[in-house]
Structures are given as C-alpha cells and as structure tokens.
C-alpha cells in the first residue's frame, strides 16, 4: 500500500515532505521564510509574523496544506491541498 505522505505528485512536480520529519528549528525557519515572501499582503491586515506562522502551521497539521520539495530546482514550497 502506498503511503500518501511519501508519494510523488507529478502535478505539483515535487515530493511531499512529511511535517514530522522536519526538525522543529528548520520548520520554524521555513515557515518564517514562507510567510515573509508569500503573505506580505497580510502585513496590513493586522497579523504579526508569529500569527501568520501559526496559521500556516495549523494548515499543515490539519492537512489543508503540504510542503513540497522540487527535485529539479532544489527548492521547496507550501501548497494548499
């Protein structure tokens, strides 16, 4: 049986990285980088960076988003499910 956490999704052209396999300090840095580059429009909405990070983390934990690593470019992204 295929484990969905490790499947290769050709549509996203990346490999899903399971949340629990990421060191907490590295995850925090990834989330901080993500919200600073992708959620800049929320800076005027009254959300702090910590609140944005918590929102993304909750989406990852609930399965509403996932972390993908692109093997070709060596880059990563957080995408909605």
Q: How many DSSP H or I helices?
A: 2
**Unreliable spans:** 1-11
- Fraction of residues in β-strands: 15-25%
Class inferred from helices and paired strands: alpha+beta
How many whole angstroms does the radius of gyration measure? Answer: 13 Å
Give the overall silhouette: globular
What is the tally of beta strands?
4
Organism: Trichlorobacter lovleyi (strain ATCC BAA-1151 / DSM 17278 / SZ) (Geobacter lovleyi)
Family: Belongs to the UPF0270 family.
InterPro entries: UPF0270 (IPR010648), YehU-like_sf (IPR036685)
Pfam family, one: UPF0270
Key structural traits:
81 residues, alpha+beta, Arc Repressor Mutant, subunit A, 36% helix, disordered N terminus, YheU family protein, YehU-like_sf, UPF0270
Quickly describe the structure:
It comes from Trichlorobacter lovleyi (strain ATCC BAA-1151 / DSM 17278 / SZ) (Geobacter lovleyi). The protein is an alpha+beta fold and 81 residues long.
SSE map:
Elements: E1 8-9, E2 14-17, H1 24-38, H2 49-62, E3 65-70, E4 75-80
Antiparallel strand pairs: 1-2, 2-3, 3-4
Walk me through what this model shows.
The protein is α+β, with helices and mostly antiparallel strands. It has a single domain, classed as YehU-like (Arc Repressor Mutant, subunit A, Orthogonal Bundle), CATH 1.10.10.610. Helices cover 36% and strands 22% of the residues. The chain contains two helices and four strands. Strands 1-2-3-4 form a four-stranded antiparallel β-sheet. Strand 1 and strand 2 form a beta hairpin. Helix 1 crosses helix 2. The longest helix is centred in the middle third of the chain and has 15 residues. The radius of gyration is 13 Å and the shape is globular. The N terminus is likely disordered. InterPro entries: UPF0270, YehU-like_sf. This is YheU family protein.
